[in-house]
Amino acid sequence: MKKDRQKAIIDIVNNFPVKTHEELIARLKEAGFSVTQSTISRDIKELKLAKSPSDKGGYIYSLHAEPEQEEAHGDIFSSALISAEYALNCVVVKTRPGTAPALGAEIDKGIFPGILGCIAGDDTVLIIAKTEKNAAHLCENINSVLKAKGKQYAD
User: Fold this and answer.
1) pLDDT for 33-75, tens place per residue?
2) 61, 45 Cβ separation under 8 angstroms
3) Closest alpha carbon to 65 in 79, 51, 48, 80
């Protein structure tokens, strides 16, 4: 029951902009789950849900990677990246030759909210975001990794 409920929570958070516990409880009831406020609080903690900026203002619940996953992502991101730029809802990431497929695979795992998917070549990844705001946020994150590694971002 708990696994089914938590899977339903993940599906809801991935598909609907949930701002409050009450909204999550209502969605779960629609899906056939009867839950209490304390159960939802425990599930949110166990699933490591966090609030992130919404495209329409305010904050919504979203999934975040586990610390060990974040560390692994950091390795591929910091070693592969050369530059990142965005236009509208598309982000173009330049990488070292041969590293784009691994970077694209990490992005496709859903580690960044608001990403529809990506296409990787040998040294370039094209990322399609849901909105321009998502693309800008992703670009900021990538460029902060570059800056931390002492790489200069080129406009």
Assistant:
1) 999 989 998 998 888 888 777 777 778 888 764 434 444 444 6
2) no
3) 48
